[in-house]
Amino acid sequence: MKFVFVYLIIINYIAFSLYHLDKQRAIKGKQRISEKNLLTIAAFGGTLGAYIGMQKYRNKTNKLSFKLWFYGILILQIIFFFAFYKKRFFI
């Protein structure tokens, strides 16, 4: 369980940092981080860091298609968590 906790801290830090980096690149007119990469890091457990990065840096908050994918990933993670939780503690 300790491994999972450390993994989630690291992946969320990376997600938060990527949103910051993407926003900085947008401001400077440089090549951005692809939406696919931003969503992939969220899908691998960085949803909280990604969400905080989106809100803090106002990054990708107005793009509907991105938000739909992001919240779809969040919903799937919540379903997975409760399915795992239920299976682990009620069997």
TrEMBL record:
It holds the Pfam family DUF1294. The chain crosses the membrane at residues 6-21, 37-54, 66-85. It comes from the Bacteria. Keywords: Membrane, Transmembrane, Transmembrane helix. This is DUF1294 domain-containing protein.
